[in-house]
Amino acid sequence: MTDEPLLSVRNLKKHYPITEGILSKQVGAAKAVDGISFDIEEGETLGLVGESGCGKSTAASSIIRLEEATDGEVIFNGGGRQGRTRNQDGSHPNDITQFEDEELKAFRRDAQMIFQDPSSSLDPRMTVGSSVAEMLLVHGMTDKERRREIVEDLLERVGLEAEYYDRYPHEFSGGQKQRIALARALVLNPEFIVADEPVSALDVSIRAEILSLLNDIQEEFGLSMLFISHDMSVVREVCDRVAVMYLGEIVEIGDTEDVFSDPQHPYTEALLSAIPTPDPTLDRENIELKGTVPSPISPPSGCRFHTRCHKVIQSGEYDLEQSDWRALLTFRDKVQTGEIDPSSIRNALSGEDMDPSDVDDETVKTQLRVEFDLPETLSDRDAESTLQTAIDALAEGRIEDANEELSVFSTPCEKEEPAETDHGNGHLSSCLRNQSAAERAEPAPADD
Amino acid sequence: MAADKQTFDEVDWGQITGESDRELSPNFLILLAGTAMLLLIAAFDYFFVTGTYDAAIGMDFGNQYTPTFDIIGWGYDVTQLDWLFAFSLLLFGAYVVLPLYQNPRMSSYYWREMKRNRPAMVSLGWLIFIFVIGVLGPVVIAAPRADLAVQYQPPVLLSIDTVYPIRCVGPVINGACQGTLQYPLGTTGDGKDIFNIIVYGMQISMKIGFIATLIVVSIGTAVGTVAAYAGGLVDEVLMRYVDVQQSFPTFILYLLILYIWGASLFLFVVLFGLFAWEGTARYVRSNALAKTEEEYIKAVQLSGASTYRIVRAHIVPNTASSIITDITLLVPTFILAEAQFAFLGLGDSTIPSWGVLIAAGRSDLAFAPWITLAPGMFLFFTILAFNFLGDALLDALNPEAEAESE
Description:
Chain B: It is found in: Cell membrane. Chain B: One of its GO terms (biological process) is transmembrane transport. Chain B: Belongs to the binding-protein-dependent transport system permease family. Chain B: One of its GO terms (cellular component) is plasma membrane. The complex is a heterodimer of chains A (448) and B (406). Chain A is 34% helix and 16% strand. Chain A has 448 residues and is of the alpha/beta class. Chain A has a domain at 322-410. Chain A has an eight-stranded mixed beta sheet, sandwiched between helices. In chain A, helix 11 crosses helix 12 (361-371). Chain A is elongated. The two termini of chain A are 48 Å apart. By secondary structure, chain B is mainly alpha-helical. Chain B contains 14 helices and five strands. In chain B, the strands form two sheets. Chain B has a three-stranded antiparallel beta sheet with strand order 3-5-4, with no helix packed on it. A two-stranded antiparallel sheet of chain B has the order 1-2. The A-B interface holds A 61, 64, 66, 104-105, 108-109, 112-113, 115-117, 119-127, 131, 134-142, 146, 149-151, 153-154, 166-170, 181, 184, 186-189, 221 and B 1, 5-9, 11, 13, 16-21, 23, 103, 105-106, 109, 294-296, 298-305, 309, 313-314, 317-318, 320, 399-400, 402-404.
């Protein structure tokens, strides 16, 4: 045994090209996964969490090479590959993304995957037994009796009965199907399993059973696991370490206990605040993330989370309530993208029996503030006057002018990409707030 | 757990050296053996049975009439169409009937689903009847022969004015010739037994159905899955060819060939089979594309299985239900097309098909409507049965949809 991790992912990227025209000219790329790195030790479970569309599943399928990664390395040291060192040209012999056909097929025996939807992860026209046994056949076990014996034994081990071998998927419940899927993932005796939201399609009552089965199996066979989920409470149950992903990047990674008790990234805080607590009297800040995940085709500059971050850093000149600052930046972004349309507000206010042009500018201005959670007056006088000018311009329909006025509000978060901060014990986060003032290009204002 | 029991974590994969993930299934072996046998007999027919000299009438038939099984005393000349028919029956047996037997659980599930649909069950019964009688009937029943002496005999329970038939086989009551059991469905204007023609017509309809289906399904499925799985340029080229073929006037090509070489059923079936697979190919392609996104396909890809295996063992079986439904709509169109061509006089008028019979009775509609009506009814009910069956199969063959709706 060596001290190298079983799996180490380095700067993995998966970009989907966006093409146009008959010649399929590439005009851009959706950066589903944009440079993630982590390690998984032997027997360890790493949780990968994040909202829908943040690239978790793409990361998984790139790691296990269901899809070809665009860039980066995935070094797998299992299956008797331990101790190999890098080649002269810097490439690694254990890099999954570079495996040739034969080695890839051998790797398939070492790493398997459990999918999210049990109802679509089994071929409806094959008996479940043959679905599982097919894995053995593909890898050259031509002895039919032996295949059947192995699969029947395995079905019993995952809590089913050997007789189920000849049944079809439609005869099983979701939980049972997921057990069969687990059996299929196990049958080649892998060392590493990717579980892509294995319980999110199941009833709450069955979740616990499947999770404890996963846990038992993992302990019995010393499996390592990459556990993908958007459910923080499940992750807390299952994972030794957790990596939080936002828009194709990992924003925080660390031991589950550390991350849950002392989250360092505002996004992690927001995710954690969404876990329901059994105690209704417990006073806890409920952080609501506004808006949707931005498009991975043109991710926001600087810190990718700055468009939604509730702790977005204020620029040095102002001293506002944090919520007002957030509202102000959101307002600025909406004006910039042209999503604010004063005439439609006018239309909405006028109702059916009034002419939209009769709605006076004052009403429109008040409505704009209400709609974007802006207070009647900002506590900072400079900021307030700028905002007032911008709103005036908007009400008069001069969107360009409003845009120009608002552009004085800016945050360091959109200018600078945060570097990783080490909080000890392998707990890393990528947030400008955690970097000391000296490290940052902009002077840090007090933000709390 | 018994010590000698095989378990998954004790498999030494280093020892298992088998490279191939292909197994010869019994179905394939049966198909192989059957095809070999067919080829042997066909070769025998081609090389050894050439020309017949009939001593009784002192005439050499040359290659006009070559009874393949003359040795065992069966004077039937096996035609190209028969070879194709036999092959398609073989395929049908090996890949439709045998799997139903091999997977009793799935079959009984289909059966339960089918049973709910009464019209479909009646249709299935009708089609099995047509199939069995059509295949076996011509072996025991003599081919229809013209006999002017018994022309225009009415069917049982019906009668005809004695001015039409030359001689009335049954009793004559009040100047009307009554039908007899000797000609249960009556006879045509040239004295052919309509019952015989209908039985022979069943076989012709079944041949049209099976052979055209064989051609359509094999080409359509191959093109569809290849296009879906290869993608890119291959997909583009194949699908654009499908577009071209779809707009190709098969009917005019048929007319052209017909004027050059003359009409034959073989020509009809092969030509229309070869020019009718576009719809199936498209159908299969879109279905295969949808299936490729399914997680079970990803799971099989993750097992390291070859593309051939994924397509053959997962994509094709899972598109089978839509292919079968597609077939049940295609077969009636072929049978109907044959009848239409025969009616227009564009078919082979020497064969005893339903369409030819319908056309033959055209001029006698006024006094002997049964000549047209009897085959017309058979044609109508057969096509109706296919449509009902297709509808029921669509519901029954989709366990997924069923499980989701429950």
